[in-house]
Description:
This protein is α/β, with parallel strands linked by helices. The chain is built from 16 helices and 18 strands.
Amino acid sequence: MKPLYSVAQIRAVEQLVAATLEPGALMQRAGQAAANGVLALLAGQANRSVLLLAGPGNNGGDALEAAANLAGAGAGIDVAVIYLAGSALASAETAQALGRAHDAQVRFLDALPDSAPALVVDGLFGIGLARALDGAARVMVEALNALGWPVLALDVPSGLDADTGAIVGPDGVALRAGRTLAFIGNKIGLHTFEGRDVAGEVEVASLAIDAHYFPPASAELNQAALFANQLKPRANNSHKGSFGDVAIVGGARGMAGAAMLTARAALYSGAGRVLVAALDPGPAFDSVQPEIMFRDGATYPLGVGTLVMGPGMGGSALAMDMLARALPGAAALVLDADALNLIGASVDLQKRLGARTAPTILTPHPLEAARLLGISSLEVQRDRLAAARAIANRFNAIVVLKGSGSVIAAPGGAAVINTSGNPGLASAGTGDVLAGICGSLLAQGWPAREAALGAVWIHGTAADRLVSQGIGPIGLCASELPQAVRAVLNELVYGTAKNG
Ligand SMILES: NC(=O)C1=CN([C@@H]2O[C@H](COP(=O)(O)OP(=O)(O)OC[C@H]3O[C@@H](n4cnc5c(N)ncnc54)[C@H](O)[C@@H]3O)[C@@H](O)[C@H]2O)[C@@H](O)CC1
Ligand SMILES: [K+]
């Protein structure tokens, strides 16, 4: 498990542990871990100057401890500190760390130096950030963001809400770090919404705290281990009926492409047979992917198999009627795009959705999630985990809240944050592809939660693979994803790249 903790949980662990140690011991461990991290990043670099920013609280104390350690490390490092003490009295630990930094002959500066240090260490604010950055801290953060000097954030990048990944506002700023060294445990906000961009690569320094001090995690990071029990090699004695039927209910006039992308994704991720149940007369077949069959949506049986409803479905009376018929049925459902908007606008459809017993996956983006919850998309983004959990609980379904650090939530609250994927996925049609993978895995017998976890991970990893081959992120097309999805899935099952 790759656990994620809330700030309240980290504080509780810290209190328990601190009571068993000498005062300041945890800060000294944090400072040592930070210094070790800096030394590793500086290895082999000619530029040996490090600028540490220390704020008024214990995050600043960590930076001062790190400064003292670096100055005393005998590694030829020029250590400078900017200490923004604020008006409140520093904690005893931070005051002690300040004394150690002075004793170690660290240079204290009033302003940013003229030339770039090898590394900036951000110890301005951590989990104690209580409001938007202002004054000197804000000026410094804006200047550093403009300069683009490499930054290692201690615990949390200054300005970021460690619980939600939102930049603390209103009108807030956060220091963009290339790396973050999180103390005690990994934090939710480093991995979703603005968190991924602001925190960069995240490492955890547990400060030698024993596992038994930790409560059950609030959430966890997605990884293949979470759906590995579904990754089964295929028997030689299998046939197309062994891997399920997926029908894409969509393709209203002018939107046939969305249903086609979903269908191709379902096919390339291994469904036995893939059909498009089209709402309006459209193409009779897909000339690129002739395996896909086309049916008249109005007469398509909606009670069996796996249905992906929504991509290019539109908001017609027929779309509404098909949803109303499918929701009480026994078919496994993936509901996306227009299906979610129709449900968001209809109390009747919401009731039918909540009463379902067959497997159901909802794949809203933040605006669709907002419509389902009757709130604004800004409110969804301000606490993505809470929003995903609320939808999962209200509609008794597995939810994939899309966006940077997609959140997968199940009824009852278990939440997982995805780590794969890149900005190449911020383009039209990639959501249709994701819905197709979800449907395909459901049709192959995966339980809904594993199907959602697997689909999101594979979809993001496929995009990452394309980018590593020079295909995107700029201009990555949704239609390029299915083949990469196939390669990733086969690699997961058989251990080597195939069909790529
Ligand atoms: N509590 C723990 O679990 C441990 C904490 N450590 C470090 O201490 C940090 C938490 O320390 P603190 O609770 O002192 O919190 P911070 O150091 O994050 O900052 C809180 C201080 O900043 C002030 N403040 C908050 N927002 C402000 C703003 N926008 N502008 C100006 N001042 C603002 C507060 O009044 C307070 O004085 C952790 O992130 C971590 O780096 C480590 O030393 C190890 C143990
Ligand atoms: K920080």
